[in-house]
Amino acid sequence: MINKNFFLNKFISKFDSIKYKICEPIIVKFYRLLNHKTYNKESTNPLVSICIPTYNRGSILVKRAIKTALSQTYKNIEIIVVGHCCTDDTQKLISRINDKRLKFYNMKSRIIKYPETAENKWFVGGAEPANIAMKLAKGLWIARLDDDDTWTKDHIEKLLKFAIDGNYEFVSALYVEKRFGTKKIDDAKMALDEYYTRKKSIDSVRIGGVSTWLFRSYLKVLKYNINCWRKDWNKVWDLDLSQRIFKAGVRMGFMNEIVSFVYPRPGEKTIGLDAYKLLDSNISKKN
């Protein structure tokens, strides 16, 4: 049986795809030209905005993401945390941190525009607060960090130097992940890998996980797609954006070094979609 929203999802996804394909390469060229002088005259110490979307994970947010951001060897940063209408102690915990570089904005409402399945929470859950965080960013560069991830201390320092030296607009790198007690380095697939295109792989730039991203701030005009869950492939919000960035002609570079760590949250054994599914399964069993 075809889901009653099947054709609606198809229509919206196709419309978005055409819109992005036509508009985003033009938008990137326009903003690149508009900001040409700014980045040509760029200092070696530009402001970097670290954008962290979150929802009711106050403790781990402070212990992982905020701690690792404040511990960076590169000091000219601002940390923008946007809560998706947090109702826990997130604001209270952040208020205890005495650092003017840290800013918290809590969305006034939490309107869910997708069926609340474990899959959809993973596909698109943080898109809206991440878009707001980028909008609030004042830096020349934006770094993305998930609330439960951590960085190497020289994460920003290394990525920024790599980006400036290579005249890249967007850079990413390797990260270490941990699933069911086993650590491994993520292989960072190419932009035109079969995994993404469902066609024969073509040699292209590798793209690392979202917590390894660093990009010029004018690229924030390419927002996260809140309808990506409707697609039949590449549904995850950060994956969707990275593919669009590539297709828009952004100059992308990949640094073959580990700069980030993606480990399970306390009480969980794995990460990503598997963690969401296990959590939902355990809640169902209790009920």
Provide a descriptive summary of the structure in words:
The chain has 287 residues and is of the alpha/beta class. It has a single domain, classed as Spore Coat Polysaccharide Biosynthesis Protein SpsA, Chain A (Alpha-Beta Complex), CATH 3.90.550. The protein has 10 helices and 9 strands. The chain has helices spanning 6-34, 36-40, 58-70, 90-95, 118-124, 127-136, 155-166, 194-197, 237-247, 272-286, and strands at 48-54, 77-83, 102-106, 141-144, 150-151, 170-179, 182-185, 214-216, 252-262. Strand 6 (170-179) and strand 7 form a beta hairpin. Helix 5 (118-124) runs antiparallel to helix 10 (272-286). It is globular and about 50 Å long. The model has no long low-confidence stretch (mean pLDDT 94).
CATH class term? Alpha Beta
What summary fits the major beta sheet? 9 strands, mixed
Structural class call reads alpha/beta
Cα radius of gyration in angstroms: 19 Å
Helix amount = 25-40%
**Oligomeric grouping of the chains:** single chain
The global form is globular
Overall mean pLDDT stands at 94
Secondary-structure element pattern, one letter each: HHEHEHEHHEEHEEHEHEH
Outline the low-pLDDT stretches.
none
Going by CATH, the homologous superfamily would be Spore Coat Polysaccharide Biosynthesis Protein SpsA, Chain A
Strand content: 15-25%
DSSP summary: helix tally: 10
Distance between the termini: 29 Å
In total, the number of domains comes to 1
How many runs of DSSP E, i.e. beta strands? 9
- Would you tell me which CATH topology applies? Spore Coat Polysaccharide Biosynthesis Protein SpsA, Chain A
In the CATH classification, which architecture applies? Alpha-Beta Complex
